[in-house]
Amino acid sequence: MPSRFDWQAEDDSQWGELEPEKGSSPRNRLRSLRLVIIVLVLMAVAAGGAVSFARVERFLNESSADTVQVVLGVHNLVLISAAEGDSELFSGLILDRLHEWTDAQVQLAERGLLLDRRPLNLFLSPGTTPESVSVTLSASLGRAQVNADYRYRLDSDIAGADTVILRQLFTYRLDDGQWLLNPPTSDFWGPWQTISGRYLTLNYPQRDQQLALRLAADFEGVVGQVCHSIAELNCPADLHLGVDMVADPAVLVELSDPASRLKGDLNVDLPAPTLLGVPIDESGYRALFRAYAARIVAALIAEQTGVTCCETGLLGVALLDLSLNRLGLMTWSLEPGAVPATSDEVLTVAETLWRNELPLDDLRSDANGRTAYALVEFLNTSWSAVPVAEMLRLQAQAGSFQEWLAMLAPVTGEPSFSEAWRLFASQYNPKSAPEDGYSRLSTMSIKSDASWLGLDPPLSSHSMVQ
């Protein structure tokens, strides 16, 4: 049972209009039942009966409480069927006459993304229970809205990583005596709104207007700062992005495809805050902003460097993630065992990664992916003087991995790749450290700032959100 729970009833006018249905709906039957009760009470009072309105109110409150428990039972069944991968049971708990919404929900459940937002670097541990749950019922007791606050980690691997709370929303509807998961109505979202600035036009549903107005201003700031700071991007004077915050869960399915990170496109689709998860405090807002900004900046970098999916494969994704890390928009960690001890090992893996398709939903979760992360970290901090954005551009132009590597080599030819790698790897694999003086970590430390951008301090959600 969640640590906090609340329920309340609302006027039906806040729930939008339902489509006309044939026959008598549960909603109409419940409304008729209330009317009959009230009429009987009035008749009893007129006849001198002892029935009071207070007793009727108590009866209705008890009915609402019972309804809340039923809704919560169905909601828990939805979550359990999704967690266990039971698509048949899960889809049977959905009421959707257009089917597209159902298809998207089923795909999210199958990918473990009904609640997890890892494609946007907001990670939910398996088995996580909500911090609190609230249920709001319509006056007719025919609709219900469940709000659940979940704690998300900002890093997939680091124990004790920072966490934020985002509020997830589920809507249910009573249909032929059964509560079913149901998409919110168009009235729930409200009409589309638009706000334009120098670098960006943001379209969003009216429901998320308060967050969208603040996000639009912060998006303007990050795009302008990135273009100003990374000369290699060559942002044109008339640069302008279009960002749509959509209410369709299909966008969450699309973003779960790793290839989406390598699509150079200045028109970016993102989930609306209510669909992604609404922050309940300032730290949650910063996490939300960082999740969105990472996608917007990735699209900008891919577009301006000529990256196209999926020619650059996993190495392209790793380079792009490194760029986002240096901007403070993505966490980055290399752990002992993630860095091959010899240059031969890393070169063998790199050859297999070159121009491969993207089979992984999270590059950091696979051994070869972690090697790709180690390689681009090494290139940026320990061997090549070529900026990361230029590495991406050259990667798109090179015909082979060896040709690309030659483009990045130090002008003097020193240190050699193998020698530099040995020193780099020794920082993560102490047992493989060379016995000569080159093993000193101070000789070649890992950058943790954004000096390659010419920024001090580096970009971060803290410095960009006012």
Walkthrough of the structure:
It is a single chain. The protein contains 16 helices and ten strands. With 466 residues, the protein is an alpha/beta fold. Strands 1, 2, 3, 4, 5 and 10 form a six-stranded mixed β-sheet that branches. Helix 9 (282-305) packs across helix 10. Mean pLDDT is 80; it is low at 13-31, 38-42, 49-57 and 433-466.
| Strand percent estimate | 5-15%
Order of helices and strands: EHHHHEEEEHEEHEHEHEHHHHHHHH
- The whole-angstrom Rg is 27 Å
Number of DSSP-assigned strands = 10
Tell me the structural class.
alpha/beta
Molecular shape: globular
Flag low-confidence runs. Answer: 13-31, 38-42, 49-57, 433-466
Mean pLDDT: 80
Assign a percent range to the helix content: 40-55%
Largest sheet: 6 strands, mixed
Quaternary organization: single chain
Tell me the span between the first and last alpha carbons: 37 Å
Number of helices: 16
Topology record:
Layout: E1 5-10, H1 26-46, H2 53-83, H3 87-92, H4 100-110, E2 132-138, E3 143-153, E4 163-175, E5 178-181, H5 186-189, E6 192-196, E7 200-205, H6 209-229, E8 241-246, H7 250-255, E9 267-271, H8 273-276, E10 278-279, H9 282-305, H10 313-326, H11 343-353, H12 367-383, H13 388-397, H14 401-408, H15 417-426, H16 461-464
Parallel strand pairs: 1-2, 7-8, 8-9
Antiparallel strand pairs: 2-3, 3-4, 4-5, 4-10, 6-7
